Amino acid sequence: SSKNHSIIDERYLDEHIDFAEFGPTETHELTKIQSITAHRLQESWTKIPHVTQFDNAEIAELEAFRQSLNSKAESGNTKVTLIAFLLKAVCNSLKAHTQFNRSLVERGKSFVQKHYFHIGIAVDTSRGLLVPVIKNVDSKGILELAYEAAQLARKARDGKLTPSEMQGGCFTISSLGVKGGAGFTPIINPPEVAILGVAKAKIQPHWDGDGFIPKLYLPLALSYDHRIINGADGGAFMGELVQILNDIRFLAL
Ligand code: COA
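^ thats the input. predicted complex w/ coenzyme A below
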């Protein structure tokens, strides 16, 4: 079976170098997931004109609220995670900026406008990168999303995701968190048209006119398919996202 999933475009590989000439080496086969991911990312990166837009959300209040939920009985046994708020914020932004909930079809002559809100979360596993999809994020609350994200991430790591749990996504969130450093440019997961990369939240000085005050900033990077989303749409989507994360009362609107 292993030979059949070697589907990386050979033009992009340097196969003819004998690396052993330069030092000790060994050769390993990619896992099936690594191989499929390599192919899909190459397709995306080479075929889709990506634009990546950056901003920071100020999340001190959100973090205080999250921690207060976790210290109280409201959250039950579910740990309230940042990803739950990100899911909800992205969902509301998708509702307000419908260009982000489309897919190009019919060789680019048409697009499908989706009226459902299924959002994938990238999970790093020992077998490779997996993206379980949380369905109907619009109809779920923060606790339910936190629970479902944790369950799906665990299933991904245990190799127990079913194909249907990885299908139907409208948008992906890649939350590298503390491993994401200052920021990174995420690659779109086709047939989706946009992806959000989340790096490490950090306290940074903010000039308020009189002096510097410490603010907790969450670095966000939004990559989108420039064939179907223009820069103004990108700015509006990011603006919405930042507004919600800055003040999650906007989720109630
Ligand atoms: N910046 C700084 N700290 C962050 C962060 C960020 N962007 N994102 C999360 N953290 C912190 C959280 O505050 C948490 O700290 P705490 O234990 O003090 O509450 C800690 O990192 C762990 O985060 P976690 O509780 O796992 O929440 P999450 O929202 O990051 O993710 C899951 C929830 C269930 C999705 C997560 O556990 C998981 O499996 N993530 C997989 C992520 C992954 O593989 N990413 C790679 C993508 S290629």
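Residues 134 and 165 are 8 Å apart (CA to CA).
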